[in-house]
Amino acid sequence: MTGLAEWYAWLRALHVIAMVAWMAGMLYLPRLFVYHAAAKPGSELSETLKVMERRLLRGIVNPAMIATWLLGVALLIVPGAVDWSMGWIYVKLAAVLAMSALHGFLARWRKDFAADRNRRPAGFYRVINELPAALLVAIVVMVLVRPF
Questions:
Q1: Given CA atoms 56, 33, 28, 94 in this order, what sign does their dihedral have?
Q2: Residue 59 DSSP code
Q3: How does pLDDT run across 118-141, given as a tens digit for each residue?
């Protein structure tokens, strides 16, 4: 484990890079759903959005989430990196779990769009589009401010 401590700064930098890529996709995918919900199934726009959503999820969002998690776990096991008596780490981890759950919902909804089975209005996805940003704010504040 002491080997990880020597790489802590690099692990942290790579973790932040992966998180930024994950968040970019998590912010963009629901916005694509807003447009897709308004598109007529089978239309050229709908078919284009299907391709964009699949590529975004599989090519960026999924790999970035996996990298974020792996690097985050590596950071957590660096001796002395986290004071487990502080509350901020638990709030951060809860927000990351919520972001991961939202990721799962987005992946499921993408499959619904791919099969022309979406039953939710564009307004639903407009609301969902705000959740990743709110979770991101909570995560960043917990890590940088460590209010408790």
A1: negative
A2: I
A3: 999 999 999 999 999 999 999 999
